[in-house]
Amino acid sequence: MIQYKIHPPIRLNQTVQLPASKSISNRALIIYALSGGRILPENLSDCDDTNVIVKALADMPDEIDIKAAGTAMRFMTAYLSVQEGQCHTLTGTERMKHRPIGLLVDALRRLGADIAYVDEQGFPPLRIRGQHIEGGLLEIPGNVSSQYISALLMIGPVLKNGLTLRLTGDIISRPYIDLTLSVMHQFGSRAEWTDIDTIQVSPVPYRERSYYIENDWSAASYWYEMMALSQNEDDEVRLQGLMDGSRQGDSSVRYIFSLLGVKSSFDTTEPGTPTTVTLKRVGRSVPRLEYDFINSPDLAQTFVVCCAVMGVPFHFRGLSTLKIKETDRIVALKTEMRKLGYVLHEGDGTELYWNGERCERDLKSGIDTYEDHRMALAFAPAALRIEGLKINHPQVVSKSYPHYWEDLKAAGFDIKE
Questions:
Q1: Residue 269 pLDDT exceeds 90
Q2: 254 and 409 in contact (C-beta within 8 Å)?
Q3: How many alpha carbons lie under 13 Å from residue 227 in its C-beta half-sphere?
């Protein structure tokens, strides 16, 4: 097992070239392929999750192994369903074979897709025979992973009758749905919310075009966390390639961290223009943080670690999807935060809260990462306040932020294996 021991820098003063957005890269790749696949999007993410889609679209082998990439599994399931005359098996890691996909498969089957389970019903691997699909009206719950909804929306323009998608019940992660619609629009599709719960996708084919991908606000969150945990008023971090007014749901990180005393300044606020965001510590933190992460669940780990280490009690809601991520993130957070000396409590599987309860710290075994990139990414900044922090299996960051450890070293962190 690889284990990193992390020592913080005396000062934090660094310019960081963030990775490209994984969320936008993966959407743009599927739409690029559906548009004819001749003009590859620029500034693609170099993370594992994007690389498996790039490889799959380039090679299109009989068996496509998307490894641990949940986004790729969902998006490729829909994409392969409309590739007439082709037949592929879509598989992944052991963990992927236990991540549910039945809801998406059922939805695609109702539209006319030919998909069979290779092993256990409701889970990958899948055998997909691509064919002509009519489309039409489809109802699915709005409280499932937005990636199911995005997968369906993206194939809408190539269906004979387009797609009318009605979302029932509560709609979670709405910003990710809007992000999908935004990328679709830029490739010439006509896809709009026609009611509070209904999206209409017209059967208007995508247009080929050059497309530039902005950098990743999710990756930015870990540098915000470092700035919040920094205890030097003169520290400063500059994050490159972000956009003001971004469609990325995790861009909300700038507002939430303002409550913890971190100020964001943009070099330019020109819409759609990548720029540099400067982070500084100003003012004090709120005494307690309550927040609903229903629209940005991937930020939860960042704020759980950050708030506890800062000594800020919290109550976080909207965490239902954390149980079906790379690991059960609620269980993982409760377990690993105890090692740092913090006792978290869970409420009905959708909430986590910390009221200041402490336990004895035990750092001997290191922080386990559970094959989950965001566990390593979110816990590493805690080294700024917790001496002797160790991260197990640190290589998991390649799933979304491959050069994270190099960026930390460049910022002055001492990382020893």
A1: no
A2: no
A3: 32
